[in-house]
Amino acid sequence: LLPGSQVFDTSYADLSGIRTRIFDTAEYARIAKPGDRRWSADEVRAALKYCLDRIMPVAEASGVRVALHPDDPVMLFRKASLLGQRNEELPRALSLIERALQLDAKPEYGVLRGLLRVASRDYAQGIQDLEPAARDGKASGLVDAALAEAYAATGDARTARKWLDSATEKSQNGDSVSVARLNAVRNMLGK
Which of 29, 53, 56, 148 has the fewest beta carbons under 10 Å from its own? Predict the structure, then answer.
């Protein structure tokens, strides 16, 4: 019995040199059917993780395009990004990005988690997520502004000013950074 198959065999026989499928209703009744089993969320995630880790790299290297499932990390990342724009949805957004990170620990997923943590006022954890992305100086002004806010909120004014200056410079060079956010951090620092 093949999962998802509409063809059911219980055994094979060789009739005059020709392999023939046999269907025995009594034997079929004893066979566990794929639809008879309920998969737990953890089992589904484990199967998806296996697919992402073992099958997707081979498919991509072979030029095979694979459609997205709602629980794919990319889709979880997109949902978390959208939900994170609404304060009342921050816990749900954090839950989604955590699931994405469990399946595929891409740096951009960690950045989004850091931004969501800062937005949730979990500053220490936000700093932990955002610092690695910002160390090379290539992070967006949004990341720098979030770090400035987090450091200001935790009382580290010197580090907050460093990130505020960086975010301000990136904003002046065309990076999309909220002027209101930069001003809010300035007010936190008493600038």
Answer: 29
pLDDT digits (tens, 9 = 90+) for 126-160: 999 999 988 877 788 899 999 999 999 999 999 99
Contact 146, 115 (CB under 8 A): yes
Structure tokens at 14: 């060789």
Non-local (6+) Cβ contacts of 102 within 8 A are 45, 49
Tokens 């505020």, located at residue? 164
Percent helix, strand, coil in the chain, to 5, is 65, 5, 30
The per-residue pLDDT for 37 is 65
3-state secondary structure 53-110: HHHHHHHHHCCCCCCCCCCCHHHHHHHHHHHCCCHHHHHHHHHHHHHHHHHCCCHHHH
Residue with token string 């300035």 = 186
**3 state DSSP class of 14:** strand
Q: In this structure, how many other beta carbons lie within 10 angstroms of the beta carbon of residue 6? A: 5
Q: Tokens for 91?
A: 């816990």
Predicted model pTM:
0.67
What pLDDT digit, counting tens, does each position of 100-133 carry? 999 888 899 999 999 999 999 999 999 999 999 8
Q: Rounded distance, CA 129 to CA 106, Å?
A: 12
**Residue 72 φ then ψ, to 5°:** -65, 145
